[in-house]
Structures are given as structure tokens and as C-alpha cells.
Amino acid sequence: MNLILPGVEINEISKNFIKRNSTLSTACFVGFLGGTLNTPTLLTSVEDLVNNFELTSSNYNDWFQCYCYLFNASSLYVTSIDHINNLEGEYSKYIDRKYNIDIIISNEANNNLANVLATTRGDCIAYIGTPKDMSIEEMITFRESINSTYSMIVGNYIRMYDRYNEKNVWVNCAGYIAGLRAKRNVTHIWGSEAGLNYGVVKLANKLNNTYTLTEREYLYTNGINILNNIHNFIYLHTNILSVHKDGNNDIKFSNVRTLVNYVGKVLVEHIGNELSVNDASTRNSVEVLLNSLLRGIKAEKGLLDFNVVCSKSNNKTDTLLVVDINLRPMQSIHYIQLNFIISMKI
Q1: CB within 8 A of 98, min separation 6: which ones?
Q2: Which helix (H) or strand (E) holds 180?
Q3: C-alpha span between 332 and 335 (Å, rounded)
Q4: Domains of the chain, earliest start first
Q5: Please, what sign has the CA dihedral across residues 125, 131, 136, 138?
Q6: pLDDT tens-digit readout, 247-289
Q7: Which of 103, 141, 111, 142 is nearest to 128 (CA)?
Q8: Structure confidence by residue, pLDDT tens digits, 252-261
Q9: Which of 69, 73, 81 lies closest to 33 in space, CA to CA?
């Protein structure tokens, strides 16, 4: 019997365990929101946002980013600031792991801060929306400044109805797309948040820009996702991370990054504070835990295959435990090829 916690046998991990952990999807955002300043506040509903932070004509973009996220999800840390110079310091507070966050919503006043936070923590995805009215080449230059497998960039602004002031407003799409990711985490953490099944932006009634198929393909190849409109459905077209499609990165899509982050968090949560000696018993316990977890993910179509090595062969130092986790993720469909063969006989 292998124990990682007192009284906890790790021969097998049930699917219920996986689903229970997958609901832990929490985001953070820093912006001009009014209310209490420079203090992280956990919101669990749109009503919490309305009650704690006042919507004004000067903060509607930041306020509606939070609104869009909470329309889809139910756990968001927000920090309100009153000066742009406070943005960096307040985002950096979330490096502290007492904030159990999975998603970071960028503030377009300084988009790189969300990327830096995600990269520094190593267990989150930053969702970044391009500023309004950017040209295609400007978006590509923008993406090249944030080359990261911990960030996902989405182009286009959405127009939505402000029911509090009875008018349409233009809003950065990062908050809504982050909410789609959080919503997907609850049902299928290793699934994509893009497409007509899971990526519809229900609050949007218009897009700032429309792009041809050629333009969308060009942007996708360069690591930029686009909101598309088909039959009056506005939806997220792809889920590539902020990397070039043909680059050498092993992790290129948000669902794969989420999967890797999730496995890492489970490992840290269950054995990170319990390891004492790097011996055969400890290494075997780690292998049993991970193999059990990954078998469950494979059964739920999150992986095609995997291999875990935590043995004497890759552990040469007593003070460093090395775990090699080889994953072959399940890939989403990105293209559809139709071949029409016309024949008088079939």
C-alpha cells in the first residue's frame, strides 16, 4: 500500500476526484473599478460586482470585462486602482499562491503584465484582448511582443448592450473569453473553449471588425485568435496560444496548457508537502498517483497516451525529485476537408 497523505491510499483515483478538482477555476483582474482600492476582492456573481463596484462612463470597459467573466463563471478576484502606475504592483500581488487562480484577465492598459504574472506563476493562462481598431499587421507585432505558451491573444472588440444605462458599449473581449475557459473547465477541463458548441459570445451583438478566411488563417498562423460571425452567431474561432503555429513549442493550445497546469497542481497539492526522502518508496508513490490520474484523463478523452518516469534512472540527486511526464494530448479539429467525388455509379 502506498500512502502520500496519512491514511490516503493512492492505488486509484476516481473520476469524481477529477471532476471535483476541475471546478476550481478562478480568475483575477486589476482595473479602474471604483470601490475599495488596492485590495483583492473575491466576487462570485454579477450581483457582487454591482454591489461592490460602481459602473461609470470612465470605467465601463474594465467593469464590463468583469461582468462578462461573471456571466459565464462564478469566481473572480478583482482589484480596483485609481492610477495606471498601480497596475503593475497590484497584478504582482497575485504571484502569492494563497490566491488559487487559474486564469488571468489582462488590462489592455498594459497587456504584458498579465503575461508576466502567468509565466511567473507557471500554473495559469492569461487572456489578452487586442486594443480596439488594430490593423492585422499591428496585431501581429503586438503578439510578437508577448511570445508565450502561458497567454492567449484574441483579436476584435465586442459590442454589447449595457442594460444599466440602456445603450450599446464597445468592450475588450478578454473577460468574456476567459469566462468561456472557466465555464469549459467545469464540464471538460481539457476541452477547447472555441467553436460553435463552447465558444459562442452570447452577450455580443456586433464585432468591431470582420475578417476574410484568408485573414483569419494568417492571424491564426501567427498566434492570434479571432472572433467570427456566422449566421448571427459570434464565436471564438480558434484557441491557439501566443506562439507561431509552426514554431517549436510543444504546448500551442489553451486546452493543452490547461491540462498541463491541472496535472501540476494536483501533484503539488497531494505530494508537494509530504515528501521527505527521495527513495524508491517515494518515487513509486508519485508514479502511482500520476498514472492513476492520467488514466482517468485518458478515459475522458483528454489524452491519447502518456508515460510517467520517476525512478532511479532519472533521479541522481537525493535532494531533487525528478518526474518526467510524457503526454500526448487529444487535439481539437482545426480544419475540415470535404472531398466531393462526382460519379454516375457509387
Answers
A1: none
A2: helix 174-188
A3: 9
A4: 17-236 (3.40.50.11780)
A5: negative
A6: 767 789 999 999 999 988 888 777 765 567 888 988 898 899 8
A7: 111
A8: 999 999 999 9
A9: 81
